[in-house]
Amino acid sequence: MFDHNERRERIIENVVTTFLKTAEPVSSAYVARTCGLGLSPATIRNIMKELEEDGFLTQPHTSAGRLPTVKCYRYYVKCIMPGINPSDSDLRDVKCLVENVLRENDADMFMNHIAMVLSEVTDLIGVAMSPSFERGIFERLEIVSLESSSFLVIISLKNGPVKTINLRINRVIPRIKIDETARLLTSRLYGLTVAEIKKTIGSRLNGVTGGDRYLFDVILDRCEDIFSFTDDNCLHIAGLSRLLIHPEFAPFDHALKLVDLFEHKSEIAKVLDVAVHDDSDVNIHIGGSGLWGSSPALSLVSAVYRLENASGAVAVIGPTRVHYPRLTAIVKFTAQVAADFFSKC
């Protein structure tokens, strides 16, 4: 015998998996025949009505079956969704499509290709985010005077990239003060991650003596820029045309929404940035605010790849009606491909 909560979960699973296959409202009679609970259609109908009242199901019109809501999909992926391995055909397709570009040893080309591969294999939008060095370990800061009011700040990470950024300062600072400021910053920040520096640099410089106070203030004010190791080219997106053929985007205004998302990469970057800093290797984002939540709601399934001092992500974007277990398996495998590539660079 199943208790009431188990019955609700079994019905949610049945409605979601059926709707993913058919894109049609699911009737109580169909659920009664296929969910294995041994309950009458009338009893199933009552439970489905209860789920509708609780926000898990919706009914397009009175005589129709039910559809899963964003809340229902979120519950399904969190509590019910089975874990599966990628199918042999998906594995073969991903391996075959990335094989040639692996030989090039060009990171930018590789990530752009990964986005195209994900789109081709899933018929959704493919996304690949280059490694973010938020977990990179700070090693050294140098300040080089270029001219009277222009300075070059050089940030070095342990076993990672070196970043340079120009600062304009409308005052003359003695060379000895510039060098002392750089030494103090290096000693106060050494061994911290980039993320830790962004959060705590203000408190770590409290009470510092020596160096140039004005130069310290400029660096504090520009902290986010100085210690940012990503750029506008870190996000690679492909496959808008593939997603436009899905029935959810047939209406013109729905298609325009996808174009908006494609043009505003920052919306995608925000979601992936959260995923990269989460402890989970796989994240599923369904609906939400802004472009993600308006009709039709969008979903993003992502997997994080982790390197020694950096992390990145790969993902697919589609409507809420997607095969979440399959997509999870595909992005996990592709994330491992990305990790293997960067570990050999």
Question: What can you see in these coordinates?
Answer:
This protein has 345 residues and is α+β, with helices and mostly antiparallel strands. It folds into 3 domains: 77 residues, Winged helix-like DNA-binding domain superfamily/Winged helix DNA-binding domain (Arc Repressor Mutant, subunit A, Orthogonal Bundle), CATH 1.10.10.10; 156 residues, Beta-Lactamase, CATH 3.30.450; 89 residues, Enolase-like, domain 1 (2-Layer Sandwich). The protein is built from 14 helices and 10 strands. The longest helix has 21 residues. The radius of gyration is 25 Å and the shape is elongated. The model has no long low-confidence stretch (mean pLDDT 89).
Entry keywords:
alpha+beta, Beta-Lactamase, elongated, Enolase-like, domain 1, 10 strands, 19% strand, five-stranded antiparallel beta sheet, Arc Repressor Mutant, subunit A, three-stranded antiparallel beta sheet, 345 residues, 49% helix
Describe how the helices and strands are arranged.
Elements: H1 4-22, H2 28-34, H3 41-53, E1 57-58, E2 67-68, H4 70-80, H5 88-102, H6 107-122, E3 125-132, E4 138-147, E5 150-157, E6 162-168, H7 175-189, H8 194-204, H9 213-221, H10 223-226, E7 235-238, H11 240-244, H12 252-263, H13 265-276, E8 282-286, E9 298-306, E10 311-319, H14 324-344
Antiparallel strand pairs: 1-2, 3-7, 3-10, 4-5, 5-6, 8-9, 9-10
Helix pairs in contact: 1-3, 1-4, 2-3, 5-6, 5-14, 6-14
Question: Could you write a compact summary of the structure shown?
Answer:
With 345 residues, this protein is α+β, with helices and mostly antiparallel strands. The chain is built from 14 helices and 10 strands.
